[in-house]
Amino acid sequence: MVLSDISIQRPVLASVMSLLILLIGAIAYDRLTVREYPKIDIPVVTVETKYPGASASIIESQVTQIIEDSLSGIEGLISSALSAAPRPARSP
Which of 21, 29, 52, 84 would give a disulfide with 60, using CB separation of 3.0 to 4.6 Å? Predict the structure, then answer.
């Protein structure tokens, strides 16, 4: 018998066979390994500035805001996080 004859005579068997083929394909697809996309570390850039004796507001306005404006023009930059904190003054 030919596959078309079986499908016409027994449509439930044809449906089960089709579902079985789909199930086997889904399991095989799930188990495939991807060699073209290796696991990589996302590049991170950290900028640290030192301004001894300055307050947080001065650092924010004169340093952090300027750096933030410069970095915002970079194409492909997804996110940035900035903070301003004064560095403690050295004691004599």
Answer: 84
